[in-house]
């Protein structure tokens, strides 16, 4: 993806100079812009979001967005010259007792700090916010009248986890599955479908990332179809057993692919906020495919 260039207006002390040159952003200013778009208050209680590495006073001229803070992604960001890497998934979601460089996470932390590259995580706050992961997925699939599957406790009515909406016209499950396949990045696992290929669907629920904890909300929404990632055997099997007239049908997609769609939209949104502040920041989406699977064998 081409970089998103952002020329932006800052507070009075950060205003462009007499020659009209845009101001250089600091990491602290980037953090405020990220908070405006994806407030940390929207993150789930178990989640770990926000700044992982970096000094708020450091200058930032280049920002890269990615799904995962893998070593390959970190190296890509460093090679491009990004002073800030924004990832959807946290690097340190679970507690650690060491970041020694003889561990994978330790090597990631050392690479970031030694290169002067900050890391900031936008996870479930990026899922829940307006324009977040599931909103982008719903929009890409052509859903209308979209609402959260689980509204945020203290947020706006449009905020929350998952989305449900309607197609303008019914489609067969087979045709709609082909639409899903067509909009997602290419990954080894492809798209798995459960249901009558010729059955009609119009009301569709989506959740970017792993969403098999939301089946009660999906059923309550009267969705004909539920699209999410990482569907495990037992929740999927139980959903099929509890189905009424075969519904909701299920489409299981790659976790990485379902969330990658958000990255270009997030880069554009951040660029727009920074442009309103007169800050000169170049923004790019990582080209690294961090889906963990390399190939798949299927019958036939």
TrEMBL record:
A divalent metal cation binds at residues 88-89, 127, 255, 259. One of its GO terms (molecular function) is metal ion binding. Residues 1-20 are annotated as: Disordered. The keyword Metal-binding applies. Keywords: Metal-binding. The keyword Metal-binding applies. GO terms for cellular component: cytoplasm. Homohexamer. NCBIfam families: YbgI_SA1388. Belongs to the GTP cyclohydrolase I type 2/NIF3 family. This is GTP cyclohydrolase 1 type 2 homolog. The lineage of its organism: Bacteria, Bacillati, Actinomycetota, Actinomycetes, Micrococcales.
């Amino acid at each position: 993806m081409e970089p998103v260039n952002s020329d932006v207006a800052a507070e009075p002390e950060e205003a462009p100079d007499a020659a009209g040159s845009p101001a250089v952003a600091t990491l602290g200013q980037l953090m405020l812009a990220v908070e405006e778009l994806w407030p940390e208050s929207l993150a789930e209680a178990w989640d770990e979001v926000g700044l992982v590495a970096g000094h708020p006073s450091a200058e930032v001229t280049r920002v890269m967005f990615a799904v995962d803070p893998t070593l390959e992604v970190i190296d890509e960001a460093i090679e491009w010259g990004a002073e800030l890497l924004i990832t959807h998934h946290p690097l340190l979601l679970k507690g650690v007792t060491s970041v020694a460089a003889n561990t994978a996470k330790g090597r990631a932390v050392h690479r970031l700090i030694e290169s002067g590259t900050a890391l900031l995580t936008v996870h479930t706050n990026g899922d829940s916010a307006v324009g977040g992961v599931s909103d982008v997925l719903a929009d890409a699939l052509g859903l209308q009248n979209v609402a959260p599957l689980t509204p945020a406790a203290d947020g706006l009515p449009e905020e929350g986890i998952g989305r449900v909406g309607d197609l303008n016209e019914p489609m067969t499950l087979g045709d709609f599955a082909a639409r899903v396949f067509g909009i997602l990045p290419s990954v080894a696992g492809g798209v798995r479908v459960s249901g009558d290929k010729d059955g009609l669907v119009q009301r569709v629920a989506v959740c970017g990332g792993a969403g098999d904890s939301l089946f009660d909300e999906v059923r309550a929404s009267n969705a004909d179809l539920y699209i999410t990632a990482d569907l495990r055997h037992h929740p999927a099997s139980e959903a099929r057993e509890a189905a009424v007239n075969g519904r909701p049908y299920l489409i299981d997609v790659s976790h990485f692919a379902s969330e990658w769609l958000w990255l270009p939209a997030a880069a554009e949104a951040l660029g727009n906020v920074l442009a309103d502040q007169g800050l000169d920041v170049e923004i790019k989406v990582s080209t690294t495919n961090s889906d963990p699977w390399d190939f798949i064998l299927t019958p036939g």
